[in-house]
Amino acid sequence: MSEITAELVSGEVGNVPLSTYPWKSEAERLISWAKEKSPTHRAFVFDLLMSLAYVDSIPSVQKNIVRYERLHDGYNSHLGFINLCVPCLLNHNEWRYQKAAKPRSGVIGKLTRECF
């Protein structure tokens, strides 16, 4: 585990936030837009960026997408973050196990730091 130093906190060392994501320019536009908006808008943008970063950091994300027949309103695929297909439960009252798609350990803290 790395140590938090004054240089790290001040930004003198470390990676540029969001630099490794292909949607960096869109993220920067959203962040710039949100700066002049209400706290609710800024919270929404933070949650949206965290969700994008979360999905983007799942190894082999395509292997975690599961096809289901008659899922909901013409959809037939689900990417779950918990061990359950939520649309199956909500729309058909069926509890179906689906392995959760999650990033590797330690990624959430890094994502939060970069999006904050």
Describe the protein in words.
The protein is an alpha+beta fold. The chain is 44% helix and 11% strand. It has helices at 6-10, 24-35, 39-56, 86-92, 107-115, and strands spanning 65-72, 75-79. α2 runs antiparallel to α3. The longest helix has 18 residues, at 39-56. The model has no long low-confidence stretch (mean pLDDT 81).
Question: What's the quick description here?
Answer:
The protein has 116 residues and is α+β, with helices and mostly antiparallel strands. Helices cover 44% and strands 11% of the residues.
Unreliably modeled segments? none
Q: Structural class given helices, strands, pairing?
A: alpha+beta
**Shape, per Cα inertia axes:** elongated
For the biggest sheet, the summary is: 2 strands, antiparallel
Distance between the termini: 20 Å
Find the count of extended strands (DSSP E, 2+ residues).
2
Calculate Rg over CA atoms. 18 Å
Portion in strands: 5-15%
* Proportion of residues in helical segments: 40-55%
Please give the order of strands in the largest beta sheet.
1-2
Q: Number of helical runs?
A: 5
Note the run of SSEs as H and E.
HHHEEHH
Mean pLDDT: 81
Defining traits:
alpha+beta; two-stranded antiparallel ribbon
List the helices and strands and how they pair.
Layout: H1 6-10, H2 24-35, H3 39-56, E1 65-72, E2 75-79, H4 86-92, H5 107-115
Antiparallel strand pairs: 1-2
